[in-house]
TrEMBL record:
<dbReference type="Pfam" id="PF01661">
    <property type="entry name" value="Macro"/>
</dbReference>
<feature type="binding site">
    <location>
        <begin position="122"/>
        <end position="126"/>
    </location>
    <ligand>
        <name>substrate</name>
    </ligand>
</feature>
<feature type="domain" description="Macro">
    <location>
        <begin position="1"/>
        <end position="175"/>
    </location>
</feature>
<dbReference type="InterPro" id="IPR024900">
    <property type="entry name" value="O-Ac-ADP-ribose_deAcase"/>
</dbReference>
<dbReference type="InterPro" id="IPR002589">
    <property type="entry name" value="Macro_dom"/>
</dbReference>
<comment type="similarity">
    <text>Belongs to the MacroD-type family. YmdB subfamily.</text>
</comment>
<keyword id="KW-0378">Hydrolase</keyword>
<feature type="binding site">
    <location>
        <begin position="11"/>
        <end position="12"/>
    </location>
    <ligand>
        <name>substrate</name>
    </ligand>
</feature>
<dbReference type="InterPro" id="IPR043472">
    <property type="entry name" value="Macro_dom-like"/>
</dbReference>
<dbReference type="GO" id="GO:0008428">
    <property type="term" value="F:ribonuclease inhibitor activity"/>
</dbReference>
<comment type="function">
    <text>Deacetylates O-acetyl-ADP ribose to yield ADP-ribose and free acetate. Down-regulates ribonuclease 3 (RNase III) activity. Acts by interacting directly with the region of the ribonuclease that is required for dimerization/activation.</text>
</comment>
<feature type="active site" description="Proton acceptor">
    <location>
        <position position="35"/>
    </location>
</feature>
<comment type="subunit">
    <text>Homodimer. Interacts with RNase III.</text>
</comment>
<dbReference type="GO" id="GO:0061463">
    <property type="term" value="F:O-acetyl-ADP-ribose deacetylase activity"/>
</dbReference>
<dbReference type="GO" id="GO:0001883">
    <property type="term" value="F:purine nucleoside binding"/>
</dbReference>
<dbReference type="GO" id="GO:0042278">
    <property type="term" value="P:purine nucleoside metabolic process"/>
</dbReference>
<feature type="binding site">
    <location>
        <position position="25"/>
    </location>
    <ligand>
        <name>substrate</name>
    </ligand>
</feature>
Length: 177
């Protein structure tokens, strides 16, 4: 398991993985942060695919996830998940953040993909405290990987230094060298 979880600093749109996860909003029609970066890099085909999903299924509730093609990205697919907006911690945020990771992983497995890259969902515009969110991300992914052969490789992509430090510390705690 130790060699199935990786931390990568930088821009998630440059990742060479089967699936990139997007921290979307319920509309699925794009936004700022990593959502904006993914849509810019993928081009208009991604927005068109999101519109089709929206027509079929409506909005994507917090904690849920949907999968689309990846447009011009190197990835084969994009999973759009909606994290919770931080409202102080007593509004089911932790459960919903775990659900966002779990439901994304289930879509990766169900589609037979081997590698996936996650951003630090909810820790930007949605305001989730970064340390608490990193702990949930690491716990949820580790727990999932102990029970499923796919994905083989999971990358946590950290755009800011604080997240990179937090994830590194958690990984070292979990797998001391
Ligand atoms: N690659 C990797 N991580 C990134 C990138 C990038 N190119 N750009 C930002 N991040 P956010 P949220 C990090 O705000 O908090 C959008 O408008 C960023 O540093 O993108 O889930 C959606 O449409 C932070 O650690 O997502 C929603 O309305 C993390 O990605 C709302 O923002 C998440 O920050 C979702 O808010």
């Amino acid at each position: 398991m130790q060699n199935r979880i990786h931390i990568q600093e930088g821009d998630i749109t440059a990742m060479e993985v089967d699936v990139i996860v997007n921290a979307a909003n319920p509309s699925l029609l794009g936004g700022g942060g990593v959502d904006g970066a993914i849509h810019r890099a993928a081009g208009p085909a991604l927005l068109a695919a999101c519109k089709v999903v929206r027509q079929q299924q409506g909005e994507c509730a917090p904690g849920h996830a949907v999968i689309t093609e990846a447009g011009q990205l190197r990835a084969k697919a994009v999973i759009h998940t909606v994290g919770p907006i931080w409202r102080g911690g007593s509004d089911n945020e932790a459960q919903l953040l775990g659900d966002a990771y779990r439901n994304s992983l289930q879509l990766v497995s169900a589609n037979g993909y081997r590698s996936v890259a996650f951003p630090a969902i909810s820790t930007g515009i949605y305001g989730y405290p970064k340390a608490a969110a990193a702990q949930i991300a690491m716990d949820t992914v580790s727990d999932y990987l102990t029970r499923h052969p796919l994905p083989e490789q999971v990358y946590f992509v950290c755009y800011d230094e604080e997240n990179a430090r937090l994830y590194q510390r958690l990984l070292t705690q979990r797998f001391p060298v």
